[in-house]
Every structure is written in C-alpha cells, then in structure tokens.
Amino acid sequence: MADFSLIGYQSYRTNPRELQELRDKSFEEIRLGVLREGISLAEPLLRTKEYIFLDIRSVRTSDLPDNPTKSPNGLYAEEACQLARYIGMGQQLKFLFIFGIPGGSKPKDVTAQMVSEITWHVVEALSANIDENPGDPAKEELFLKKIVSMGQDGQDLVFVTSRSTGRWWMEVPDIKNSENLCIPCSFADYSTACSGEVPLRWLFFFQKINPN
After folding, report:
1. Of the candidates 79, 106, 128, which is a domain's last residue?
2. What SUPFAM superfamilies does this protein map onto (predicted)?
3. Of the candidates 73, 106, 128, which is a domain's last residue?
4. How many whole angstroms separate alpha carbon 44 and alpha carbon 37?
5. Contact criterion met (CB below 8 Å) for 186 and 43
6. For the CA atoms of 17, 23, 29, 31, what is the dihedral angle to 10 degrees?
7. Which pLDDT tens digit goes with each residue over 55-90?
8. How buried is 95 (Cβ within 10 angstroms: 0-12 exposed, 13-18 middle, 19+ buried)?
C-alpha cells in the first residue's frame, strides 16, 4: 500500500492539479490551517514514513529571515521543532532530508540555529524512541484495547493505545484478506468515535484498503 503524506502545505502556494493528483492516489495531506488546530494530527502520518523531506522554507520569514520565499505565513519555529520530534518518534524512519537551506553566502545565525534545533529534536526523539507493534500477540499486555460502539446499526470501532508512549492505533478491516490492519491514529480520532462519529481517518483508510 503506497504511503505518502503532504504536511503543512498552503493552498495558495500549492498547484491544485498536483493536490488533486495526491487525493486521487489516496495519499494523505494536511493543510497548514488544519495543522494549526492541533499539530499532533501530524504524528500518525509521520509514524510510518521511511523517507522524510523537510523543506526549511516552510517556516515563516519572521522566524527564518533567510527564507527565499519571503512569505509572511508558514510554520512557526516551535511547530517545525515539534514536527521534528514526531519525525524522530517514527517507527520506520531511514532517512531525513532537510532542504531549502539558503546556499551561497553564509546563512544568518538564526537560520543555522533553526536547522540545529530541528536536528536536535529529531535526535533527542530517536534516542528515546520505543519500537511498538500492537499487532504482536507476544506484546499484547503492553497495549490497551478500547472498543467504541457506533450504535445499533453501526460497526464497533476498535482502538489500541500504548501503555508506555500513549500512541494510538485503530483497527481497519481488510475485507479481501479477512484481517484487521492496525493503522496509526491520534487521540482525536478516538474522541471523535466516542462522540458517535466515524473518524475521517478511519473512513479514508477503509476506502484505501478496500477499493471498489
């Protein structure tokens, strides 16, 4: 199952046709405005990525004076560092590419420090990371399973949370192979289910796993 995500894009700086192509391929995307409502929404998307490309130009110019885009909008420096922490917490990370750093003349001190702080957050998270697999029967006691009833005519939704890290997963049925897949999710998805609504992330993956 192809896995690609676009995180923190700005609509007026993104080609609509390219964005639609991502959606047609069932790739995930989070607009900057949505990300700002809760940056933890990005964590499940980053958890399973092997290759991550972090464009330093996504940081607003006020926090990154060397930003060649000169954009007044973008990620705050603190948000970039939080995303870096989520990257380091990833379960399958192999490579992280930080690009967009101004070339040529020596970058301003604040730019160099921004890149250094992003790198530190990644490394710090890597050093404390725990490899977790809720699908491993031998480690079942490390997780807590929560079943949410969606009403008389609805299907029960199963969520799994780690007792140590607080990470969340949801079980999504693979109808063709008669099995359930554990998909990374957030506490917000669990809360949505508890309120009686099927999380959009669950619906997204159900359709992706079970195409017509």
Report:
1. 128
2. Arginase/deacetylase
3. 128
4. 15
5. yes
6. 50
7. 999 999 999 988 988 999 999 999 999 999 999 999
8. exposed
**For 144-168, how does the pLDDT look when each residue is reduced to its tens digit (9 = 90+)?**
999 999 876 778 999 999 999 999 9
| 3-state secondary structure at position 122 | helix
The whole domain housing 200 covers: 137-209
Q: pTM for this structure?
A: 0.90
Mind giving me the DSSP string for 19-69? HHHHHHTT-EEEEHHHHHH-GGGGHHHHHT-SEEEEEGGGB-TTT-TT-TT
The structural domain count of the chain equals 2
Under a CB-based contact definition with an 8 Å cutoff, are residues 141 and 128 in contact? no
Angstrom distance (rounded) from CA 209 to CA 122? 31
Handedness of CA 4, 8, 13, 17 (dihedral sign): positive
**CATH assignment at residue 82:** 3.40.800.10
